[in-house]
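Question (not urgent): is this output format expected?
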Amino acid sequence: MSDEPSDDPADPATQGGRGAPRTLAEELRSRDDAALAALLRSRPDLLSPVPGDLTQLATRAGTRASVVRAVERLDRFTLQTAEALAVAPDPGSYTALAALLAGPPPDGPGAPDEQPPPGASGAGAGAPPGEAELRRALRTLRERALLWGDDDHLRLVRTARQLLAPSPTAPSPTGLGPTLAEATGGTSPGRLQELLAAAGLPGTADPVSAVTALTGLFGDRRRMAELLATAPPAALAILGRLEWGPPYGTVDLTAPSPPVAWLLDRGLLVPSGEGTVVLPREVALHLRAGRAHRRPEPTPPAVAVRREYPPETVDATGAGQAHAALATVEELLGAWETEPPPVLRAGGLGVRELRRTASSLDTPVTTAAFWIELAYAAGLLASDGEADERYAPTPAYDEWLRSPAELRWTRLADTWLTGTRVAGLVSERDAKGRTLTALGAGLDRSLAPEVRRRALRLLAALPPGAAPDPASLLARLAWEQPLRGGPGDTSPEARGAASGEPRPGGPDAGTPGTDGESDPRTRIARWTLEEAELLGVTGRGALTRYARELLTPEPELAATGAPGAAPEPGSAGTPGTPGTLGAAGEPGPQPVPDPAPAPDRAPGRAPDLAPGEGEHGALTEELGGELATTPPSAASLERAARALAPLLPEPLDYVLLQADLTAVAPGPLTRELSAVLGVLAEVESTGGATVYRFTPASVRRALDAGRAATDLHAFLTAHSRTPVPQPLSYLIDDVARRHGHLRVGAASSYLRCDDDALLAEILADRRAATLGLRLLAPTVLASHTPPDQLLTKLREMGYAPAAESAEGTVLVARPDAHRTPRRTPPQPVPDGPPTPDRALLTAAVRAIRAGDRAATVPHEPPAAPAREGGQPGRPGPHAPRRPGPGGARPRPTGQRLGELPRTTSAETLTLVREAARTGAALWIGYVNAEGSASQRVIAPVRVEGGFVTAYDHTSDAVRTYPLHRITGAADLPDQ
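Got this back:
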């Protein structure tokens, strides 16, 4: 049996070992319940479904999909730490890792007299990390089961090492290449001896010792400096160009230039293929002064304040934007309820309709798309589903209109915070080259809610009234999760290599960078700042005080929290923490101000919180991940509404009528006044005050809606702070006098009027030729045109006809408000499994512990009744059971550890009844209706009718099992 440590969780040789854990499963088994809960909270995909035991949990934590998801959620420095571990020996030590991140101490073993060594640029190095930052990064990796082992045996999970370690097809983000042993794997023994001789080393007896000797030379800083001191300047320039990656370059190996030949002869460059060479990792580390990254970034970049405003100014500006947002949504849906736009055959809103809507709202196309998408996500807008499918308001829109303004705003803000549809993508193209349309498919981005909430939390961390510098805020978000959202490929491989001399890498091969606008996460963050200003979440770039209420947790949640991880042994703040970073010059262990980050909250938020935030400024780490993605609660929305309500202008029940046939509304109008005035007049301009204009067409529209001239006069008198102008009274009376003089009915249609001269005038009008009019009687004209078209044409000719019913009464024509059937708002696209709550975590840990105990603890064989005749037989079900060594009850003969129990039906029934009577737990084998066998830990409650009702510890639920499907049962010792 091999003694080589492995992260294979199923290796029986490593189970139950003493001392340091030898597998990831053993390390997980040593954790307490709080630490397991922290792991499951940070990696919720491990709960789908709940693992049967800790071995299964370790196996699932090492799968590629789960590791990729966990690595994507690391902050930049934690990722840099993992990348350094991936290029370090396995297992690595804390001291070696510290040297990779900060460089070796100047007085360390083999340190050269000259600093930096020849050929090492040493330029562009970032600030070396301190003890606290490195401890935090290691604690994060341990908590998320990406790293295990003590400080002397640090091991990345095998899958994580494979993802981050360099290979010919996927170079490391550090820009380092393969080790010398890997690079010379196909080199002949004779060639290795030539390399030793050229490097001034004695010959060896075998290739392995030759590679070991060269590796020792390249790892000795003093001897390596002496070797490079003899190098031609051109050779040093080549090494400098390859120093930070990519480590591969193209050369003519058949006739290399003298500098390249000098490097090849000494193994400082190694052929890696036809016409390509590679810089061995040991050589690159010497050139870098031992650093794995050019710019370590142990601390998050600060969010700079661009300008500060009085908080009252910010709130007033934001409230004005909030009021404008409500008015824009009402205007949008008010227009679409009378003229609903069609749905494209492929789904979505056509470009022409989008531009028409933008023109009517007097906004850019991108802004119009945002309002359309927001109304759609809030459930206020949907397609009607008819044959001639169109978009129209839903019945929920009417309910929304009846709500107070502050509640209408919180509904929009909540929808925006939690929605996954990104309006900024409209008019762009997807991966297949298809144009993305508003209300169409392809606009969902699951990371959008997290980015929005995180961006607002960074704004909330600033002092009230402080507007951030957008570039610094975007840089902070990029630091927190640099791999999240699919940034542009800036790896060394993507940059490629040129022919001739080896091509250098980019300015920083240390970590994958973000490619500005091509990074989806950065683009969503930029759109977040713009949309927050439109919606009134921010005012003049600063977060409003009422919007902060949307981000504060529930007091009871902040007080109780979720199960958290206990401090890791040897973590910062623990007495006796070994080691410091030599180059950093840290005097020793230091406390970590910000605990390890939860999955959806990068570190650094707690120190950023502004003073005066009370209990919300000291959120525990256990809440970090949940608060980053949890939508606002009903209480948070209510608090935000209460804070916003006093800032919104009070609705007015009056207008100011003017002599030029206009009415000025100096503020928002009441719902009743706005509805009537919207029919009686045309909106001429909007802004701080809305200007309405009265026209013959608008007055006729009000008369068509069933109002008489006297009603209109009374309405204007009651709702005007100024006298009704005489021109307006004349306009109403003039239109009312002509209104209904002509009557249109259905023949196809007919035209009736008591004034036969007027009918004769219409009949003789050339403009009426298309109506097909003919005289039926002196006061009646018939037409083959439908009544609605006849009404429209006559109004275009300057007449004021009215429609009448079959009984001859005037039909009241109110505006046609189109509504869809009731529709469910679109559901946000989840970004993987949701963050588990406290109850689920507690149940999951309990089930995993029970399953692990069932799989690893010896089980007692079932007892059998005594044989007939009083002959001695197997112990009966109630006979005392003899414990085994150490108090453990013996397993049945031939039953292996973790084997599915097998008992007869009578034995199973006896054990189940006894467990139901005593409340004990049983380990059972069960076969479901599909024939799938499984092991379960149950606590029987009732046995009757051939069924057993029990609490299933594995699924944390009460279930009923048919007894004939239970293959066997065994007692579960309390160990």
